[in-house]
Predict the structure.
Amino acid sequence: MNQDNQRRCLQCNKVLHGRMDKKFCDDYCRNSYNNRQALADGEQVKNINAILKKNRKILQEYLGESAEMIQISKQKMMDAGFNFGYYTHHYTTKKGGVYTFVYEFGYLALEGERFLIVKRESDGSAKKNVH
C-alpha cells in the first residue's frame, strides 16, 4: 500500500497496522474520539432537555397542585417563555381532540388562542377526563 491509501487512526491520524476493520491505533485514541463525539451530541441533547424542562415547569406552575385543568391564553404562555416547538408527545382523544404533552402536562388548543392545560396521572389517565 502506498502512503496515500493507508488506513489511519480516526483520532491521531497515525498509520494503522493489523486488522482491516481497525479504526484506532490504541485505547487512548479510541476513548478520546468517542468522548469527543459524545460531548458534541450531548450538548444538543442538553439544550433540548433544558427547553423541555422549562416548558414542563411553566405548565406545572399554571396548573398548580389543586387544579384539574385550567384555561390560559397563548400570549400568557409565550410571555412566560413557553416554546411551542418542543414537546414529548401527542394524545388524540376519541372525539379527535389533539393534546400536546410535555411529559405528564398537556395542553389542548381552544378557540380564541386559548389553551386548556391538564395533567396525566402516572397510569396514563388524566385528572377527570381528557376531552
About this structure: The chain has a mean pLDDT of 88. The chain has two helices and five strands.
